Amino acid sequence: MRRVTVLAAAGGGVLAIVIGATASHMFFNKASDAAEVQAELTTGTVAARWPTPRADATESTAAAPSVATPQTRAAEAAKTSASCSHPGALGVSRTVQIDAAGGPGFGLTQYRDYDFLQPGEVVLSFDDGPWPVNTRAVLAALEAECVKAVFFPIGKHASWHPAILKDVVAQGHTIGSHTWSHVNLAKKSLQEAKDEIEKGFSAIAIAAGRAPAPFFRFPQLRQTPELKAYLGERNIAAFSIDVDSKDFAIHEPDAVVSSIMTKLQKAGKGIILMHDFQHSTALAMPQVLQQLKAGGYKVVHVTAKDAVVTLPQYDSAVAALMPPAPAVSARATAGVVRTVSGAAN
């Protein structure tokens, strides 16, 4: 079996990635996992797990985002929902469009004003990406079953991995935001919290090449009345959850599947919280989707009426923080290296 091991320093620990012949032989290990799990609430603490960032080697991240019109966004959503060519796939049951004016809230854990899901309907949502290997594995599983999800990326992650975020967009999923750096906003000053929200949206817009949906999820679901009101002023909808996978604390794919399905069977429907940052979730996704199909659940794709309007001062500030575009040599290889002795194979 061929294996490749990559080691990276992360918050004082070591993050080990082992790639084997199949996905089932890939593991993420960190010495301080157990201690961190004790401190996590719902979505957990991401900062201590970050390795040293690398800029994408294929593109610049600082291009100005484009803004799609409501008509364009609706047409794209309809096209991607109707384009499934996989017989027997789970598919999207229906697509809904959210008008985020005034900052409505969704997810019965915190908000009960807008319960739009019927019994047996689910919304798939993923936090904390984009992340190498894991996000694309999640995307592959979703594509195989022709289902769409809502992704809530971290702005800093988006700035490190714009090509992966562009893949999420290209496959027709909805993207919102999960702040710039995944801090607990309830412990920050009002201005610091606003900065985190706005920097997150600006970073995601720049990395994706287009403005995201005005959808926001609070890290650890920790909000304050002032911040919820601020989202309302900015016409940004707040997304909570109905079913918590707890995949931040579960590191076995089978256990992730069991956690989701047990809670969903009890709730009967809902917005499911998962993390494309988590390797166990990436491995679990094919089985999760199979279990949803076997259980007769229907996937609802949530889209936005309008894109978020990012603020220019944050666009400029975040663009200055983005990794620079890699240098590209104008000289072809043959003009730099030539064989002077022997024969090239």
**Structural Rg:** 21 Å
Q: CATH homologous superfamily?
A: Glycoside hydrolase/deacetylase
Low confidence ranges: 1-61
Say what oligomer this is: single chain
What CATH calls the topology is TIM Barrel
Approximately what portion of the residues adopt beta-strand conformation? 15-25%
CATH C-level name:
Alpha Beta
User: How can the largest sheet be summarized?
Assistant: 7 strands, parallel
What is the helix/strand order? EEEHHEEEHEHHEHEHEEHEHEHH
**Using DSSP, what is the number of strands?**
13
Q: What is the total domain count?
A: 1
Percent helix: 25-40%
Question: What is the number of helices?
Answer: 11
What number is the mean pLDDT? 81
GO molecular function: hydrolase activity, acting on carbon-nitrogen (but not peptide) bonds; metal ion binding
Pfam families: Polysacc_deac_1 (PF01522)
Keywords: Hydrolase, Metal-binding
Function: Is involved in generating a small heat-stable compound (Nod), an acylated oligomer of N-acetylglucosamine, that stimulates mitosis in various plant protoplasts.
